[in-house]
Design a protein that fits this description.
Elements: E1 2-6, H1 10-22, E2 26-30, H2 33-42, E3 47-51, H3 59-68, E4 75-79, H4 84-92, E5 97-100, H5 105-122, E6 156-161, E7 164-169
Parallel strand pairs: 1-2, 1-3, 3-4, 4-5
Antiparallel strand pairs: 6-7
Helix pairs in contact: 2-3
Length: 173
């Protein structure tokens, strides 16, 4: 499972990253909203842990932008702000869950696992033909040592496994 942690408190982000990696997650971190939004757009994540009071772009704006682009990755908002209106705003911008710091690591992990279970049941299988969807990173082709034909993309075989679209380019005959 791959998780993006967007948190401006560097020590907290590093501790969360280390804990999640010890649990077997692959973790990317960003210390501001601009970098977090870029990473979320460029990579595929199973979940995002998103702070609210971020430099550059706050968590509400990052969440709203991702949801506006159709990104359905589960988002767990994490904030030091205590107040029901902050929680309401986070959920109304599209977050799937909300926790207030300080929070026990065990509780945060339980919420994250619940989000991942819920998403696994709800994620639709997608099969696309033609151009790859925005944000889909090619794991094959020229970048991975495959060959591209000068007349355009090589034909490919695509499949969906665990909700992730994968493709392999076939050699031209």
């Amino acid at each position: 499972m791959r998780v993006l942690v967007v948190e401006d408190e560097e020590r907290f982000a590093a501790g969360l990253r280390d804990g999640l990696e010890a649990e077997g997650f692959a973790v990317d971190t960003a210390l501001d909203g601009v970098d977090g939004l870029w990473l979320a757009r460029e990579n595929s994540y199973d979940a995002i842990v998103l702070g609210i009071m971020l430099p550059g772009l706050n968590g509400y704006r990052v969440c709203r932008a991702l949801r506006g682009e159709g990104n359905r990755t589960p988002i767990l908002m994490l904030t030091a702000k205590e107040g029901e209106w902050d929680e309401i705003e986070g959920l109304d911008t599209g977050a799937d869950d909300h926790l207030t710091k300080p929070v026990s690591y065990a509780v945060l992990l339980a919420h994250l696992r619940a989000l991942l279970r819920r998403e696994a049941r709800q994620r639709p299988a997608v099969l696309a033909a033609g151009h790859k969807p925005r944000g889909f990173r090619d794991r094959g082709g020229a970048a991975a040592g495959g060959q591209r034909h000068p007349d355009g993309p090589a034909p490919s075989v695509c499949w969906v496994r665990a909700g992730v679209l994968g493709c392999r380019f076939l050699p031209r005959t």
